[in-house]
Here is the input.
Amino acid sequence: MSSLFSLEGVTALITGGSRGIGQGMALELARAGANLILVQRDASNVDTKTKAEALGRKVDIVIADLGVANEAYKVMEQVDKLGVEVRILLNCAGMTLRRKAEEFDDESWDKVIQVDLTSCFQLAREAGKRMLSYEIDPVIGCRGKIINIGSIMSFQGGLLTAAYASAKGGIAQLTKNMANEWASRHVHVNCIAPGYYYTDLTASLLESERGKKIMERIPAGRWGKPSEDIGGTAVFLASRASNYVDGAVIPVDGGWLAF
Here is the structure.
């Protein structure tokens, strides 16, 4: 069973891994044996790197601002220079801007779509090209794994989140499309759709009246914890245990969507 979920010696490229659920998933991949390449806007935050290295993993940081058009190509250029085969891509970078639909300006729309959808597509496409050229990896039993991070907004429209909901809906459909094209070629593409989690970014929401109403609606009766509640799903999708799972959008939301 341990070998079924092993990522020993496999390299994972991770965006959005410096904090929150991205960090939680990155560290669980490291605990399963993966070496990490972290995409960050700068090298000042070394928390994830330090914690993963303490687990005995090799960790590199590549610098890119995914909010800028075509920075995804710079990511892959830097990865190629490292001389390693990326077998896992975890597309976790994301942002949101809250506006009324009638006040959602083009600049704000473009900014969110660039980070949450366009850069994810570009990285998945470029990493996928490389994976398709690899031999099957003996640890994960395929050529590669791509894990996109959607949201409960992949299923729901939300409020004040026109760009975010559109991007996350797009991530779900992008996942299915790539899975359709690549599953038979041993590159498996899936999506995790998180619900509400305890992170630095949600701390103020948690304490608000809106946060209390959210808590009441979650069947599990609590918000998620970034590592233990979602990291296992990432390990599952990255490992050979999920090699017959393709195009799935898996909610990890404490039952929010089922309510």
